[in-house]
Amino acid sequence: MVAGDDVKRSREGPEEDLFAMVKLRGALLSDLPELAKLDQDIFIGLAYPYFVLRQIFDVHGEEILVADDGGKLLGYSLAVRSSANSKNDLAHYLALGVRAEVRGRGLGRRLAEETLTGLKKGGVRSVRLAVDAANTPAVKLYLSLGFTPVGYEREYYGEKQPRIVLDLNLLASRTSERRLSELARE
């Protein structure tokens, strides 16, 4: 799942103010009620129930990153390493979400970049995610980060819930311009 964050970034004004006041940190158990509410506000019918977030926290707590402005959570990122692979070189990006009032200011990108950096440092080689094709800002963000389309599933999250499946090879390097150019040709 992902809730969009525009890839356009300005180096002046509101973004600088937002970045100055927001701290990215690991989620705490005490964050879960607010995180569940944030997830519901962002993803509505596809939000994780509280008990699922609690279970994810219990197993993958160190892999939940939150954006905290000192008073409330503005966004979060959740990518978990696969335990099925003994080399632990695969992760699934389960969620990236930013409050509507701060979207388009680079916070989603900041969360994603920090998450991907942590995964790479932890030995992850490949990251997979599924994104709604209609969520253009999210698709553009992921493509700009190096993700490439590997499939399309009409009912990924159930009936009438299609998703584009994207993969990122953390060991490969390609320019954003090339990826966006390829997308434009499709």
What is the compact description of this entry?
By secondary structure, the chain is an alpha+beta fold. 35% of the residues lie in helices and 25% in strands.
Description:
It is a single chain. The protein has helices at 14-21, 32-43, 50-60, 107-121, 136-144, 176-185, and strands at residues 23-26, 64-68, 73-81, 90-98, 126-131, 148-153, 163-169. It has 186 residues and is an alpha+beta fold. It has a seven-stranded mixed β-sheet with strand order 1-2-3-4-5-7-6, sandwiched between helices. Helix 2 (32-43) packs across helix 3. The two termini are 23 Å apart.
Which class best fits the helix and strand makeup? Answer: alpha+beta
Q: Element order, helices and strands? A: HEHHEEEHEHEEH
**Computed CA radius of gyration, to the nearest angstrom:** 16 Å
- Assembly type: single chain
Tally the helices.
6
The percentage helix is: 25-40%
The chain-level mean pLDDT equals 83
Major β-sheet strand ordering: 1-2-3-4-5-7-6
Shape: globular
As a percent range, the share of strand residues is 15-25%
Which key terms come to mind for this protein?
globular; 186 residues; 25% strand
Task: Set down the secondary structure blueprint.
Blueprint: H1 14-21, E1 23-26, H2 32-43, H3 50-60, E2 64-68, E3 73-81, E4 90-98, H4 107-121, E5 126-131, H5 136-144, E6 148-153, E7 163-169, H6 176-185
Parallel strand pairs: 4-5
Antiparallel strand pairs: 1-2, 2-3, 3-4, 5-7, 6-7
Helix pairs in contact: 2-3
